[in-house]
Design goal:
The structure is a homotetramer of 147-residue chains. Chain A has 5 helices and 7 strands; from the N terminus they run βαβαββαβαββα. The first copy, chain A, is an alpha/beta fold. The longest helix of chain A has 16 residues, at 16-31. Helices cover 37% and strands 20% of the residues of chain A. In chain A, helix 1 runs parallel beside helix 2 (44-54). The first copy, chain A, has a 7-stranded parallel beta sheet with strand order 4-3-2-1-5-6-7, sandwiched between helices. Chain C binds chain D through residues 1, 3, 5, 35, 58, 60, 62, 66, 68, 73-82, 89-90, 93-94, 96, 117, and chain D through 1, 3, 5, 35, 58, 60, 62, 66, 68, 73-82, 89-90, 93-94, 96, 117.
Chain lengths: 147, 147, 147, 147
C-alpha cells in the first residue's frame, strides 16, 4: 500500500555501459522497497527490470502493443496498452520519480512529459534538460534516490 | 513472471449485493494466483481489491486522474494515467480475462472494449452483450475462472 | 467558428442498407452546417463521409493507425492517432452529438463512451442502450438533429 | 482531400516576439494551402491559429480537456480529447510536418514525439534537438516549408 513507484527510462538499444547502469539502477530501486516501472521491452528497460528482480523487487512494464508476451522476462506485471508510443506518457506520468538513463528521442519524450507533470527527474548519462537533476555516477544516483 | 491478469469492472456506486459480489470475486482471483486489475477507485473496484488483499493477492488500479492518492486503500500498484474515462480501454485491454459486475455506461464501455479486443468477458449480474459468457452466481463464476 | 460536430459511428463492414443510412446521414449533417466526424475508415464511416461531401460538408476522420493514408477518400481532415481501438473514445467524446448506425462491439464501445461523457446519442438501427434516443427512420433522425 | 497538415507547437505563454512568429507562421501555412493543427489553447497556439484564419486557412485544435469551448476563438475544428497532456502526442503525431516555436517542456515533449514518429520538425527560436531542422527567421521557415 502506498508504495513508491520509480520509472526507469532509456533506449531499447543499450551498449554495455548503459546495460550496467540500468541493472544497477534496478537493484537500487528494489532495495529501497520501491516498485520499478518501465516500458517493458528490451535494452535499458530489460536490464533495469533484471536488476530489480535480482534484488527481490517488483516490476511493472507498460507496453506499447496489445500483447502481454511482448514484455521482457523480468516483468512481473505487464500492462499492454495498444497505445503505441503514446504509452510513453504513462511510463513518465505514473511514477513518483523518474530516472533517465541513456536513450534517444523516446527517452527525451518521457523526460519532457515527466517535467511537464512536475515529476522529479534524475538523469544519469542521459539528456540534460533544464529542470532535471543530473548525476554522474550510480553512487550519486543512489544518494539522490535515498532522499 | 507470466502471471495471469484478471480485470474486475463495475460501478463506482455499488449496493450491498454488488459489493459482496465484488469482494468474493476479488478473493477468487487472488486464490487462483492471478493479479487483480481494476479502475482503482470506489464501489465495485474497491470491494474487489479488498477481497483480493484479504486472500493475499496483488492489486493494480489504473486510475483516470493524475494522482496516485486517488486510489482506494486496497490498491498495491496505482497507475495514474491522466487519461480520464479513456483509461477504461486500458482496464479492459490489459487483462487476460475480464469479469463484469453490476455497473452503468462506464462498465458497458469496458465490456465493449474487451469484446473488441477479443478478450473473454464473464458477466455476473451485469450487462448482457452477445459474446460475453453470463453466469448467475459466484460459484459458477469460480468454476469458469478455474478453466 | 464554433461549428457543431456530429460523430457518425458504425461498423467498418456495412451491408447495403447500412451504407444507404450512412450516406443519407452524412448528407443531413452537412446540410445542417455541422462538421462530420467519424473513425475515418471503411463501411459506415466511408459512406457517411461520402454523403457529407456530396452535400458540400467538411469531414474529419480520427484514425486508429499512424498513417494519414489509411483514411477513406472522403475524409478532408485525417487525424492519425496511433492509439488503436482507444481512438474510439475520441470519436465519441469530441462530438456535440453522436449518431449510431449498425455496428458491432466497436460501435457499442463508442455508444457507451458517449453516454459516459453525457453526450446525446441517437441510434438508428443500432444498439439500444438506456440513455440513447432511438429512431426508426432517416426522416425521424433528421427531425431529431434539427432540434 | 489529401491536404497537408502542419502542426505548430509552442508555449501557452508567449511574449511579443513569439506571438509575432506564431502569427506569421500561421499565415504561411494557410497560404501554402495546408491545414494548421495546434493544441487549441492560448499563446503560440492562438496566434498561429489567428494568422492562419487571417490568410483564409482552416484550423484544428486538439484540446487536452473535454470541452469544445476551451478552444481559442480562431479554431475552426476543436477536438476535445479529455487526455490531458497526453494529447501532445496527437498534436505531434497527426501532422505531416511540425513547426516548433518558443515553448517549455510541453513543447519539448511534442518535438521529441514528432522525432520518435520520424516526422520532419522545423524549429524557429525553439529547442535545438538533434534530428530537427533549425532555422533563424520566418523567411527561412517559409523557404523550408515550400520544399
Amino acid at each position: 500500500m502506498n508504495r513508491v513507484l520509480i520509472s526507469v527510462i532509456g533506449g531499447h538499444k543499450a551498449d554495455k555501459k548503459a546495460r550496467d547502469l540500468a541493472r544497477q539502477t534496478g537493484r537500487i530501486i528494489a532495495r529501497l522497497g520501491a516498485i520499478l516501472v518501465c516500458g517493458g521491452l528490451g535494452g535499458v528497460m530489460e536490464y533495469a527490470a533484471q536488476g530489480a528482480k535480482e534484488a527481490g523487487g517488483l516490476t511493472v512494464g507498460i507496453l506499447p502493443g496489445e500483447k502481454k508476451k511482448d514484455a521482457n522476462k523480468y516483468i512481473d506485471i505487464p500492462i499492454p496498452t495498444g497505445l503505441g508510443y503514446t504509452r510513453n506518457t504513462l511510463v513518465a506520468g505514473c511514477a513518483d520519480i523518474v530516472v533517465a538513463l541513456p536513450g534517444k528521442e523516446g527517452t527525451l519524450s518521457e523526460i519532457a512529459f515527466a517535467l511537464t507533470a512536475k515529476k522529479p527527474v534524475i538523469g544519469l548519462h542521459s539528456w540534460k534538460i533544464p529542470g532535471m537533476v543530473c548525476v554522474e555516477s550510480i553512487v550519486e544516483l543512489k544518494r539522490k534516490l535515498k532522499n
